[in-house]
């Protein structure tokens, strides 16, 4: 009851007109959470799924149009095989368990990253849910899988080079907007808020191009402990900030 009340007051503090259109999250700390509880790393990831559900629900409810979750980085392939396999299985089972909820809540699923490098089972499940939810027009939930920003930027450079070589584009046409259109996020606005959990103050190769003007929010909480109130707190903090984009305060008035 008490929780519900405090939950309501936090949500009530949010200014609807000042909500971001896109939140990106580096979900970190599953392993440390599990260690504290005396469980395996996989136990931590399983509990991380609960935090994912609560976060997606809260963001969808606020009618924020885009949410990107860093679920598996290019670098995560270096983890022990058992952990990688368990994470892949967890992805498949979570996607299949949550398909109905995504449909019911009008959520569209997208994935960014080197999707072809994922196990076929994961690709199939992803493609199925992406296809089923493609006409939903509520929240767009973007999973970054086998993703890293440097990989994405290099892919863009290769594709731009091909287009220049084939005469599809002139070098002079390359500007910020054109470059963005070659990234995996071409149809997605840049995030206004990036959240990282677990007390690490790093970007870890996530959306490097897209976060040029993004507000950063760090919390010491480990990902499996994250609940909707934590997202509200991040948003309250974000709404107190002045975003100047290189201008001075007075110019914004
Ligand atoms: C970071 O914690 C977490 C990950 C690398 C995986 C994130 C995956 C989930 C939350 C579950 C599946 C996701 C979806 C979208 C259903 P860590 O393992 O790096 O923790 P540590 O830094 O404490 O070791």
Q: What molecules are bound to this protein?
A: farnesyl diphosphate
Walk across the major sheet and give the strand order. 3-4-2-1-5-6
Please give the largest β-sheet: 6 strands, parallel
Secondary structure tally, helices: 8
- Number of structural domains: 1
Rounded mean pLDDT is 96
Low-confidence segments, ≥5 residues, pLDDT <50? none
Shape annotation: globular
- CATH topology type: Undecaprenyl pyrophosphate synthetase
Q: Which architecture name does CATH use?
A: 3-Layer(aba) Sandwich
**CATH structural class:** Alpha Beta
Strand pairing plus helix content: what structural class?
alpha/beta
Helix/strand order: HEHHEHEHEHHEEH
For the terminal residues, how far apart are their CA atoms?
A: 42 Å
CATH superfamily: Decaprenyl diphosphate synthase-like
Number of E strands: 6
- Helix coverage percent: 40-55%
**Gyration radius from CA atoms, angstroms:** 19 Å
**Strand fraction:** 5-15%
Features:
253 residues; alpha/beta; Undecaprenyl pyrophosphate synthetase; six-stranded parallel sheet; binds farnesyl diphosphate
Write the layout of secondary structure elements.
Blueprint (H helix, E strand, L loop, with lengths): L1 H11 L9 E5 L3 H7 L4 H21 L4 E8 L7 H24 L3 E5 L7 H13 L7 E8 L1 H17 L10 H5 L12 E4 L18 E4 L9 H12 L14
Parallel strand pairs: 1-2, 1-5, 2-4, 3-4, 5-6
Helix pairs in contact: 1-8, 2-3, 3-4, 4-5
Bound molecules: farnesyl diphosphate.
The site of farnesyl diphosphate has 18 residues, from α2, α3, β2 and α4.
